[in-house]
Design goal:
This protein is of the alpha/beta class. Helices cover 23% and strands 29% of the residues.
Length: 278
Amino acid sequence: MWLFDKFGPRDCVRLSRDAIERWVDVQGGMKLAASHALDGAGLPQPNAMLAVLRAMYPAPQRAGVDLVLDSTWLPLLLVDTGGVLWSRPQVEALVRHRLGLLYDNGAAKVSTWNLRVDHRAGDRYALGAGLPEDVRQSLSNAAREVGLRGAVLTPAFHWALQRLRPNRGWPGRTGWFVWLEQDRAIVSRFDRGRFTGFNAGAPRCEDADDVERLIQTESCRLGIETKREPVVVGAWGMPSARPDRLRHSHLRWLPIAGGTETTHRHLPLPPQPLGSAI
């Protein structure tokens, strides 16, 4: 189910560190239709995942569904190829090696993970995403049992890039994209449309001032001059304090949420914690 090119009016099931959420398309964006809190003890067991999706979709879903995974579930990293790796197998081997250095242990073998690698021949950097096989199987089986036809597994960062298209209007296709997850910010810098910087574990930003400080920090880390390049923040909602258009004229905050606000359903926890055996 590594199908990243399908996009259109589709439901979205967001899997974050603290919750599983169902988002539906409405005019002007998406709205949160149902949510289910996680207990923080680990990934849901297969039976628990099935119960959650059945509660969110009591009837088979005719339209397609995107299963959007935060980086808690699907780690991301930017790999420096030196600009000398041209073949896809070489780049994938390097990405898998780097993921293994970070995540291999007695319980998790990166050698079995499903990879997505974004890299064009000759580029210096490759963006990699790794999906553990047990997570893939659990989600795939649950989606099939519930009747979510055409369900597509997608890293949340890639999904947001495709949906929000933050680089529209950037002079020289150069700027920053900050994607906010529940517990972190993912910061990426583009130079002429190519990745030149990436931090998958930056502190989460609550407002435009936090974003400004974060961009200054990342600029120093990358050894580039701090200047007012375009900055786009992608998030599921708007910040409590909207950006000041005069002070932050180069910054745009693009929320996923839109349309008419409605009260969503909080689904009850299953009889046993999601992180334990059932």
